[in-house]
Amino acid sequence: MTSQEIRQQFLDFFRSKDHRIVPSSPVVPFDDPTLLFTNAGMNQFKDVFLGTGTREYKRAANTQKCIRVSGKHNDLEEVGHDTYHHTFFEMLGNWSFGDYYKKEAIMWAWELLTEVWRLPKERLWATVYKDDDEAFELWKQVTDINPKHILRFGEKDNFWEMGDTGPCGPCSEIHINLSDDYDNPSYVNAGTPECIEIWNLVFIQYNRDETGKLHELPAKHVDTGMGFERVCAVLQNKSSNYDTDIFMPLIDEIVKLSGVTYKNEEDKIPMRVIADHIRALTFAIADGAVPGNEGRGYVLRRILRRAARYGRKINLKEPFLFKLVDVLVSTMGSVFTEIKEKQDYVKKVIKAEEESFNATLDRGIELFEDVVRRLNKNNQKIIPGEDVFKLYDTYGFPVDLTSLMAREIGFSVDEAGFNKLMEAQRKKAREASKEKFASVNVVLTDLSSFNITDNKQVEFTGYDELKSE
Ligand code: ATP
Ligand code: MG
Ligand code: MG
Ligand code: MG
């Protein structure tokens, strides 16, 4: 079964259960200051859950473009090192807005997985929130899951929240154990590639406010999210998402460009990272984000620089990321037409970013290696703040890139030292700008004697904030 067919079957299944199929919202949310990127299918329905907005339908389903690189859901560190966390992924979802609840959500999830897709029941596991007896009983009543395969977990795994505030509630998840030891409960939520979470059914019941307090919502809702790339791997009998038809064309192109084969783990990691990151970059840029120095733009810049540097590990030196856009558009452009429409623009933006980082990347890597040699001589394993700062300030290395390079060789970075230098730089910038405004003020005051009254002071908000979001 191709990934296109799998996506379509999901949507057809929920259409047959009277769900309205709605478009994915952009991956860059323009109307939610609590979010840098869309991190779940439910984001576009937040107002419905909170009771501040309505839709003309009570049931919906879609495939939602998500990016998880900041805030509460941040998987950046895992990406490429494991085979099932991506920065950008599609989340298949179905929703009930004050309509059906736990029973139908569980029943239909089971029906799709075991009757339509015929996944082996003996390998499936369900988890419920520790106090959720209702969901626990429903799994036994409305499905034929092995009752021993229903497990209870606490807040961390079975209470879902989109961010620090907003709609949330207990959830029930479905995991699949693909190992020979599939009847063993200890695999579930253990973070192994043999047993992965494929679908989360969230029972939205509360809103968490800024003080952390939970408030009952006016109605109860269902919000589900299934990892599309993960379910494709399972249905295509692959042990890695990167071996599915979603990623293989990208991997093939990277193999072609680099001349390195996709074989040893050492080469596979950079190839997976690159195949992953080009998706996040393309979709985010097509939806209006631009690499830059602050907030969302800086997150993109970090992703791009990370990918460029991984390219160096497989001999890719000239700008290469932008060349992958065409392959991505040829595999996904018919489903997400925005990347096809913006294809040339996206390539230009990525190429320009690659070129500007390329100018300093090799010299930065050299500096990093000099520092490591120096530290090795003294048996030290922490990259000093000054060097981290120099890499940032002179060579454009985001601190997480330096940390990653350090981690790869068993080193760490002195983040506190780095932050101190950053703060000092910011302070200097603030002072410099104060002086500038002081002189502007003088001029304006002078002019005011000529009856010009508008001499509003402009508030300076700082340079390159290095927030970890
Ligand atoms: P995990 O525990 O594997 O990190 P999660 O519990 O954080 O997943 P949810 O927030 O429950 O994930 O999201 C719903 C579904 O989206 C998950 O069941 C999973 O299939 C998929 N998913 C979550 N994060 C990613 C990711 N980074 N890449 C690909 N799929 C993901
Ligand atoms: Mg997660
Ligand atoms: Mg989980
Ligand atoms: Mg989950």
TrEMBL record:
The annotation note on the cofactor reads: Binds 1 zinc ion per subunit.
What's a Gene Ontology MF term here? Answer: tRNA binding
A single Gene Ontology biological process assigned to it is: alanyl-tRNA aminoacylation
Q: Name one GO cellular component term.
A: cytoplasm
Q: Does the keyword Transmembrane helix apply?
A: no
Q: Kindly report the protein's main subcellular placement as a broad class.
A: cytoplasm
Q: Where is the Alanyl-transfer RNA synthetases family profile domain?
A: 1-469
In which domain of life is the source organism classified?
Answer: Bacteria
Q: Which residues cross the membrane?
A: none
Reactions accelerated catalytically:
tRNA(Ala) + L-alanine + ATP = L-alanyl-tRNA(Ala) + AMP + diphosphate
Keywords, alphabetical = Aminoacyl-tRNA synthetase, ATP-binding, Coiled coil, Cytoplasm, Ligase, Metal-binding, Nucleotide-binding, Protein biosynthesis, RNA-binding, tRNA-binding, Zinc
Per the entry, what this protein does is:
Catalyzes the attachment of alanine to tRNA(Ala) in a two-step reaction: alanine is first activated by ATP to form Ala-AMP and then transferred to the acceptor end of tRNA(Ala). Also edits incorrectly charged Ser-tRNA(Ala) and Gly-tRNA(Ala) via its editing domain.
| Similarity annotation | Belongs to the class-II aminoacyl-tRNA synthetase family.
Name of protein: Alanine--tRNA ligase
Q: Which organism is it from?
A: Ignavibacterium album (strain DSM 19864 / JCM 16511 / NBRC 101810 / Mat9-16)
Q: What is the lineage of its organism?
A: Bacteria, Pseudomonadati, Ignavibacteriota, Ignavibacteria, Ignavibacteriales
From which residue to which, out of the full length, is covered?
A: 1 to 469 of 862
